[in-house]
Amino acid sequence: MNTRTSRCALAVAAGSLTLSLTACGALGVSSGSSEASPTKGNDITVGLLLPEKANTRYDKFDYPIIKEKVATLTKKQGTVDYANADASASRQAEQLQKMIDDQVDVILLDAVDAHAIADGVKKAKDAGIPVLAYDRLAEGPIDAYVSFDNALVGEVQGRSLLEALGDDIDTSDKIVMMNGSLTDPNAKQFKTGALSELQGQVTIAKQYDTTDWKPENAESNMLMAISAIGANNIAGVYSANDGMAGGIIKALKTAGVDKLPPITGQDAELAAVQRIVTGEQYMSVYKPYPNEAEAAAEMAVAKVQGRGIQFDALASDRVDSPTDKDIPAQLLPVVALTKGNIKSTVIRDGIYKVSDICTGKIESACEAAGLK
Ligand code: GAL
């Protein structure tokens, strides 16, 4: 996939929940891409298809935020019909078909398998139901896409790993690269972004694509990497997300490593933020979920209500998928989350309270990190 974005609003740093149209230069932009059909009022149903449960973001943030925003935008008359595919592409195809049969007004789709779902997208379109790709760019005739800037996610991870390895880094230093699921187009972009930073700086001794993004799969791949490279010869680990970082740390501990190398992540999961506090994980990527979820809800409601100008203003970037070109999109910036900015990101944005993070045995590490 090829994304074209102005890398808008990179300056809108850490977790600004107020980030909106102006940050992406979107005001006043009208590409005429959406056919206005002002048919619906507030009594609308938004179908929401999310991909999995292993990663906590979907049930904990994406769904509740979208639900609340749809209610707010429709004077509490609009509803969200939610289905989670639990990492099964065939289950998601059934869930999509059910939404078509139930004649929901618009579908927000976060694909398990972006390629396999294309037929379903076409069926929805044929049934007159617009489909907006959410977070992952589904193939087929989607109307628009809202996501974080996925190449930037990979770049931020790669840069952070180099920063953690320090100034005396050597090109012969060995790292392991644990990438995400091959069915998720984001995983490819994370990898490309990270490689743009890492290549030529370190040796990527082993790399894996992780089936279904499952932590246990990352754990067993890491055990293989350890036996091939040697536990003490691993200078750092690129992990594409936090769930997998958890599996990687387990594998390193099983192999008897007590001084863990720097490990990256993504999603600012609570367990990962706690590991960052104690120093077990070097960083995560904080993706301000409210920005993405609220933008998706706004786009979905504007689409159904035929508010074309607003819809176009919300989607002023353009991306290409393997099947479609010039898809209107909104791509949001992300922030590297390390020990030093926990307060100014996830806490400031109300994602977690200090008391959520600083429990039991990590209290003293919290104090040392200035979290009170
Ligand atoms: C990606 C998503 C990440 C993370 C990952 C694993 O597509 O952008 O935030 O959730 O999947 O589920």
Task: Explain what the structure shows.
With 372 residues, this protein is an alpha/beta fold. The chain has helices at 57-73, 89-101, 118-126, 150-165, 185-198, 215-229, 242-254, 270-278, 289-304, 308-314, 343-347, 354-357, 363-368; strands spanning 2-4, 45-50, 79-84, 106-109, 131-134, 144-148, 174-179, 203-209, 236-239, 284-286, 317-320, 327-332, 335-337. The chain has an eight-stranded mixed beta sheet with strand order 1-11-12-6-5-4-2-3, sandwiched between helices. It has a three-stranded parallel beta sheet with strand order 8-7-9, with helices on both faces. Strands 10-13 form a two-stranded antiparallel ribbon. Helix 2 (89-101) packs parallel to helix 3 (118-126), helix 4 runs parallel beside helix 5 (185-198) and helix 6 (215-229) packs across helix 7. Beta-D-galactopyranose binds next to loops.
